[in-house]
């Protein structure tokens, strides 16, 4: 048995663990068909399930989302560190990132116009997944003694 004090033992341990987890998470769900790893199939099933379970919340609440964004429900008496627009732009910057911007260009250049359709479909179902994530973050947030609100994935996962 290798001990952590031995040179390379930690790398060997995590390398073995990584190989095992990758073989489980990324195995091909439909052999013989186009390669669809288990994790991708799981995300697709979860996104479709959440969209159906919440009754297409991404379409039903679109008008309300724009009203909140415009500040319709905000008053001068509201307290808080950030506005709705600031919270939205912060969440978008954390979600989108450079990888998604470059990924779109690469997908269109490799996959052609059909890739655009599948990105729209993925975005449609991904909206409900993001809604679920944001709802969980609001549900499990905590108010610190100094008044700051802390929450997010690090709280509910």
TrEMBL record:
GO cellular component, one term: plasma membrane
Segments crossing the lipid bilayer: 12-30, 36-56
Origin: domain of life: Bacteria
Cell compartments where the protein resides: Cell membrane
Protein topology in the membrane: Multi-pass membrane protein
Record's keyword terms, sorted: Cell membrane, Membrane, Transmembrane, Transmembrane helix, Transport
GO molecular function: amino acid:sodium symporter activity
Family matches, as PANTHER family: AGSS FAMILY TRANSPORTER, SODIUM-ALANINE, TRANSCRIPTIONAL REGULATOR, LRP FAMILY
Sequence similarity: Belongs to the alanine or glycine:cation symporter (AGCS) (TC 2.A.25) family.
Name under which the protein is recorded: Sodium:alanine symporter family protein
């Amino acid at each position: 048995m290798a001990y952590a004090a031995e040179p390379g033992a930690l790398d060997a341990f995590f390398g073995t663990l990584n190989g095992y987890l990758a073989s489980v998470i990324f195995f091909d769900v439909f052999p013989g068909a186009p390669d669809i790893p288990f994790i991708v199939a799981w995300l697709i099933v979860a996104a479709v399930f959440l969209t159906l379970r919440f009754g297409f919340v991404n379409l039903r609440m679109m008008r309300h989302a724009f009203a909140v964004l415009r500040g319709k429900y905000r008053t001068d008496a509201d307290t808080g560190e950030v506005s709705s627009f600031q919270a939205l732009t912060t969440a978008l910057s954390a979600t989108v990132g450079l990888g998604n911007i470059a990924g779109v260009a690469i997908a269109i250049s490799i996959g052609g116009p059909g890739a655009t359709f599948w990105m729209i479909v993925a975005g449609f179902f991904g909206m409900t997944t993001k809604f679920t994530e944001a709802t969980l973050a609001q549900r499990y947030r905590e108010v610190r003694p100094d008044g700051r609100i802390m929450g997010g994935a690090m709280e509910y996962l």
